[in-house]
Amino acid sequence: MTVADDDISKLVDSEENYENPFRQSSVLPYRLGKKGLEVLMITSMKRKRWIIPKGIVEPDMTPWDSAAKEALEEAGVEGDVSSQKIGRYHYEKWGGLCRCDVFPLRVTKVHNTWLESEERDRTWVSGDEAVARLRHKKLKAIVRNFIQPRRDRS
Questions:
Q1: What stretches of 54-143 adopt beta strand conformation (E)?
Q2: How does pLDDT run across 94-109, given as a tens digit for each residue?
Q3: Which of 14, 34, 67, 137 has its CB 3.0 to 4.6 Å from that of 27, i.e. a possible disulfide?
């Protein structure tokens, strides 16, 4: 099955039956504001679906630093990224398997323009709205598990 670059609808539960998965990392950009926890979402390049920043792990970087670099390039945000992943999901792409680790990024700086600002939209949404906009069941669960304790504290 060939899957378009940003069509990540074919999820798999494990790396079983796949050799050498593509290593990706992603950030969940968030902030705590007057309305509680908000998540920054961006549109995919081709299909304009709402996603969170992600990319291939750079060879000379840790997965969390590589994910933070993607946040700057794709969403124009910087902040404090955690080295503790909040989850992992898998999906098929490029004729193989992608294994994507997700790291929280507390946003401290939002740029007005950024590398991919001409190709992507971005918007702050509530945690619940972020879950509703995402397509991957596993990623939805990761985000839901991250926002739940923070919602209870706000």
A1: 54-56, 77-81, 87-93, 96-110, 122-126
A2: 778 899 999 999 999 9
A3: 67
